[in-house]
UniProtKB/TrEMBL annotation:
Residues 1-13, 51-60 have a biased composition (Pro residues). Residues 1-95 are annotated as: Disordered. This is Patched domain containing 3/pseudo. It comes from the Eukaryota. It is found in: Membrane. Belongs to the patched family. The gene is PTCHD3.
């Protein structure tokens, strides 16, 4: 009897082999393992008939059969195995006892049932590929109709989407809106508005050291006149002029620059004797903060310092905002302004100044324009990923070549995007602009799952049938793609708890689409891979078939030319060989370990250092494209106008006895506390109570008398109309609330603004 090599037994690291037995109800899976006997399972009949001793290291065992042994001279001696003979104690394998002990630990409580479930799913996908291919396609077609609800021209509210829900600033603004009124058609005040008004802003930068000369002011005046002469032609034939939509103070439009207007009225105005930040012109103080930048100040002059030089000037054109109809017309005029601004500057041929522009619509328009630029990049990304996937899965073996499968894997990720987005649009989840960036994440995850499944397919044998190969593939990839998908989905769905609506919508869309990506990977993509497996079988039979007609063509189907793939072997990618034979041994050497630890320590140190230098806040320049017109505007503003920040309201929210001297002293101390802040200019504080007390004392009135205090407020407001919207008086002649203003300085960064609020 000839010697035969026995089949190697399963090692402790190997999984038990699963075999299939067809029945009337479908495939049934049974586990063959020698350890099953130790668990108390019923052994097979063959083992009952002839007990098998444990395998031991040594010479291979002989093949036994039921034929009689030869006798006589022809009988060749061979070793025999006695079924009843006990094994020596020293031949009992210790590793098997250890394996049995480890098997009882049940550390695969998650992996084992998941693998079994995916084995069954893989068998079904391999047995019925067309069902699993067409069903997701029809689902995608149905859910894709949700894109009909995609908003096209609806204006996205940036404040609603990109500010915290329930933030304290919103509550404070609601209080201001409920207690203080404004009127931008008659008495407009930018600092007294609780919301941003419609506006257009021009920053003028002189080519010389200073623009405080009549020639430069004349050129700026021509620019101002060209802007105010803009007219918007409407469909009904009427026009929208600047004078119709401008915010007004009394009967006049709010001047874009108070000093420029004073010079336009009086061309003999001496520009070399201007005081800053307050200039007294004809008995009326002109506040110049925020209107001139790049300043060089001299000695004290009047209510400020002598303005020696100014490199830049700001022109602010405020428009009506409160009335909805006026706001619509203002936005139409601003849109026309943005369209015609380049023509204006080209027509004027400005020689002494450079001009940059910005409007209240610019953030919205540029943000949308930047997001729209993602669409062609999105198309390019899919094309590049398809090329990369096709190149990575290319083989010189025409049977194992997976170029078409790789391309369909990218298409499967696209189908997931269509399904996920369509479903949420059907439900009514808001589609914000940043959601347009999520397909890039979906593409990366989908392609990753695709490569894992293709790699597992290459490790199967061509001799096995398609359902069995698909079952093996799914059992190998079950844990990897399932766990990674669950963690990704949970990470994004956790973002739903964010206080920003835009982040909430982004996480909902991305998490849901990742779920569809996972579903389509194990159904639609798996079905296509099973169909491609049938192609492999057909190609293999065609190569093996003797056909003189195609013999010369068959030689070029595989490399080396003329070879036929081993149907019992597996495919090993060259990259796997590189990591196994070169990178792995290199990384495990002692020198490499020390180097990796050193690099990791440097990485940790640099990461900790970076955490302490994170810049908080949002730079609007990062929201626009590199060639956007708002980028130079913010550059100029940062260079020349960053010293004065916004004016801050200080509100008394309760009823207090303003005529009580002790109460007034407490309010005055409170204001002084604010003025001690290093980011506040105490010389520019504006509080109606201080002006009113001085007004009463100047008229020989007693500010400590209640009747006197309350009865003289109307006369005070008629003489000082700026404070008219700073006092909220009820119908019972009581001051419900009032407010003052402080001027912030040197708060150009978000970090400084945060420090200012905490002080």
């Amino acid at each position: 009897m000839p010697w035969v090599e026995p089949e190697p037994g399963p090692s402790p690291e190997q999984k038990p082999k699963l075999t299939k037995q067809d029945s009337a109800t479908g495939p049934e899976w049974y586990q063959k393992s020698e350890e099953s006997e130790s668990e108390g399972n019923q052994p097979p009949l063959e083992s009952l008939a002839s007990p098998r001793p444990p395998e031991t290291p040594g010479p291979p065992a002989l093949e036994r059969d039921d034929a009689p042994l030869p006798e006589g001279d022809d009988a060749s001696p061979r070793p025999s195995v006695l079924d009843d003979a006990p094994l020596p104690e020293e031949e009992t394998p210790e590793p098997r006892a250890i394996c049995r002990h480890r098997h009882r630990c049940h550390t695969d409580c998650l992996e084992a049932p998941l693998s079994r479930a995916f084995q069954w799913l893989g068998w079904q996908v391999g047995a019925h590929p067309w069902i699993f291919l067409l069903a997701p396609l029809m689902l995608t077609a149905a859910l894709g109709t949700g894109f009909l609800y995609l908003p096209e021209e609806e204006e996205e509210d940036l404040e609603k989407q990109y500010t915290p829900v329930g933030g304290p600033a919103k509550a404070e603004r609601r209080f201001v809106q409920g207690h203080f009124t404004t009127n931008d058609s008659y008495r407009f005040s930018a600092s007294r508005r609780s919301t941003e008004a419609n506006f257009a802003s021009l920053l003028v930068v002189s080519y010389s050291d200073s623009l405080l000369d009549p020639a430069t002011f004349a050129e700026v005046s021509k620019l101002d006149g060209a802007v105010q002469d803009l007219r918007v032609a409407r469909e009904n034939g009427s026009q929208i002029q600047y004078q119709q939509v401008c915010a007004r103070y009394r009967a006049l439009c709010v001047r874009p620059n108070p000093l420029l207007y004073a010079w336009q009225v009086d061309k003999t105005l001496n520009l070399s004797s201007i005081s800053f930040p307050i200039y007294n012109h004809g008995g009326h103080p002109l506040y110049l903060t925020g209107f001139f930048g790049g300043r060089i100040l001299g000695g004290s002059l009047g209510m400020g310092h002598l303005l020696l030089r100014a490199k830049a000037m700001r022109l602010l054109y405020y428009l009506k905002t409160e009335d909805p109809e006026d706001s619509v017309q203002s936005k139409q005029w601003l849109t026309h302004f943005l369209e015609q601004f380049t023509n204006i500057t080209n027509t004027l041929a400005l020689k002494k100044i450079e001009v940059v522009h910005f409007t209240s619509l610019s953030r919205q328009l540029e943000f949308q324009a930047t997001s729209m630029t993602v669409i062609p990049v999105f198309h390019l990304a899919y094309v590049l990923i398809i090329l990369f996937a096709v190149t990575s899965c290319f083989r010189f073996d025409c049977i194992r070549n997976k170029m078409c499968v790789a391309a369909f894997g990218v298409i499967s990720a696209f189908l997931a995007v269509v399904s996920g987005f369509g479903l949420l649009l059907h439900i009514g989840v808001p589609f914000v602009i940043i959601v347009a960036n999520s397909p890039f994440l979906i593409l990366g995850v989908g392609v990753d799952d695709m490569f894992i499944m293709i790699s597992a397919w290459h490790k199967t044998s061509l001799a096995d049938d398609i359902p069995e190969r698909m079952s093996n593939v799914y059992s190998k990839v079950a844990v990897s793609i399932t766990i990674t998908t669950i963690t990704n989905i949970l990470a994004f769905y956790t973002g739903v708890m964010s206080s920003f609506r835009s982040v909430q919508c982004f996480c909902i869309y991305t998490g849901t689409t990742l779920l569809f990506c996972y579903f389509y990977s194990i159904t639609c993509f798996g079905a296509f891979m099973a169909l491609d497996g049938k192609r492999e079988v057909v190609c293999l039979r065609w190569l093996k078939k003797a056909d003189a007609k195609w013999s010369s063509f068959k030689k070029f189907c595989c490399f080396p030319f003329g070879s036929v793939p081993d149907e019992h072997g597996t495919d090993v990618h060259p990259m796997n060989l590189f990591f196994r034979d070169h990178f792995g041994p290199f990384l495990t050497s002692s020198e490499s370990k020390y180097f990796v630890v050193f690099i990791y320590v440097l990485y940790i140190i640099s990461s900790i250092y970076g955490c302490f230098h994170v810049q908080e806040g949002l730079d609007l320049r990062n929201l626009a494209s590199d060639d956007s017109y708002i980028t130079p505007y913010f550059n100029v503003e940062e260079d020349y106008f960053s010293d004065y920040g916004p004016r801050v309201m200080v509100i008394v929210t309760k009823k207090v006895d303003y005529w009580n001297e002790d109460v007034r002293q407490k309010l005055e101390n409170c204001i002084k506390i604010f003025e001690k802040n290093v980011y506040v200019d105490k010389n520019l504080t504006e509080f109606w109570l201080d002006a009113y007390v001085q007004y009463l004392k100047g008229n020989s009135q007693d500010p400590n008398d209640k009747n006197t205090f309350m009865n003289n407020i109307p006369d005070f407001l008629s003489n000082f109309p700026n404070f008219q919207h700073d006092i909220n008086i009820s119908s019972s002649n009581e001051i419900i609330s009032s407010r003052g203003f402080i001027q912030t300085t040197n708060v150009s960064s978000s970090t400084k603004k945060k420090i200012m609020l905490f002080q």
